[in-house]
Design brief:
The chain is α/β, with parallel strands linked by helices and 262 residues long. It has a single domain, classed as Metallo-beta-lactamase, Chain A (4-Layer Sandwich), CATH 3.60.15. The protein is 27% helix and 26% strand. It contains nine helices and 14 strands. The strands form two sheets. A seven-stranded mixed β-sheet has the order 6-5-4-3-2-1-14. It has a seven-stranded mixed β-sheet with strand order 7-8-9-10-11-12-13. Helix 8 packs parallel to helix 9. The protein starts with a strand and ends with a strand. The model has no long low-confidence stretch (mean pLDDT 97). It binds zinc ion (2 copies). One zinc ion binds next to helix 2.
């Protein structure tokens, strides 16, 4: 059984908990730690979990809404933190004061095994030093997770094939962004090829990821200023052929309920 839960999603802080259960034991990975440690601990406590119930963390890139409190997590939990070499350099992770073995190097398409969970990182176009996003599997089900993506490269589309569930960025509505009070450099950055996916770009990516086994889609990393859940529903549901309530929208603060594949 594979299940996952966003604990928070968006520019204020991202964290996604993924759990595989096999023969009565659970393997858990936290993807990103943009939340404060007290918030993270509180959200885990609501799930009857503590920091040490997490077996490892994966940091996708150095932006603060993702790396956030990864250092504090590692110091408190003593668990390993995986990230690309570029992210290590950008975050000065080797100076975090951790045991040397706690910082592990993730590479494109090198599978990481955490108990019964297998994580496959893949390179994505985004304005960070060496950003990676991931797919995860328990050997039966495949979850694709991509929260910060400038555009859907062929490499990304290939990595996300045959997923049973997707957590997919649907960052902004292009018109709302264009009309917003953001400075023009920021509008260009967000809408550019190394920024974030618009609702339409997300829908176009989704068209290339449809497969008979796709059961759950969580729209993630919505801009609080330049998007609305209804606009995301209007863009993504027609592609999926789903009713509006079948699409899950990750809330900035509360994330989403557990999504279970079994
Ligand atoms: Zn980012
Ligand atoms: Zn982000």
């Amino acid at each position: 059984m594979l299940r996952f839960k966003s604990l928070g999603s968006g520019s204020a802080g991202n964290a996604t908990l993924v759990e595989a259960q096999s023969n009565g034991s659970a393997s858990r990975v936290l993807i990103d730690c943009g939340l404060s440690i007290s918030e993270l601990s509180a959200r885990l406590a609501e799930l009857s979990l503590s920091l040490t119930d997490i077996d490892a963390m994966f940091v996708t890139h150095e932006h603060s809404d993702h790396v956030g409190n990864a250092r504090q997590f590692a110091l408190k939990s003593n668990r390993p933190v995986w990230m690309s070499q570029g992210t290590q350099l950008a975050t000065q992770a080797l100076s975090w004061g951790l045991e040397t073995s706690q910082i592990q190097t993730a590479k494109d398409h090198e599978v990481i095994e955490i108990g019964s969970l297998k994580i496959t990182p893949f390179t994505v176009p985004h304005d960070a030093r060496e950003p990676l996003q991931v797919t995860l599997t328990d050997g039966t089900f495949k979850l694709g997770l991509v929260t910060d993506l400038g555009h859907a490269s062929a490499h990304v589309v290939q990595a996300l094939q045959d997923c049973h569930a997707l957590v997919l960025e649907s960052n902004h509505d292009s018109d709302m962004l264009r009309m917003s009070k953001y400075p023009s450099f920021l509008k260009s950055r967000i809408s550019g090829p190394l920024g974030h996916l618009s609702n339409i770009e997300s829908a176009n990516l989704l068209k290339n990821l449809l497969n008979p086994n796709l059961r759950h889609v969580v729209a993630a990393h919505l801009s609080e200023r330049n998007n609305t859940p209804q606009l995301v529903i209007d863009a993504l549901c027609p592609v999926l052929g789903w009713e509006p309530n079948e699409l899950i929208i990750a809330h900035a603060e509360h994330g989403c309920p557990w999504v279970t594949l079994e």
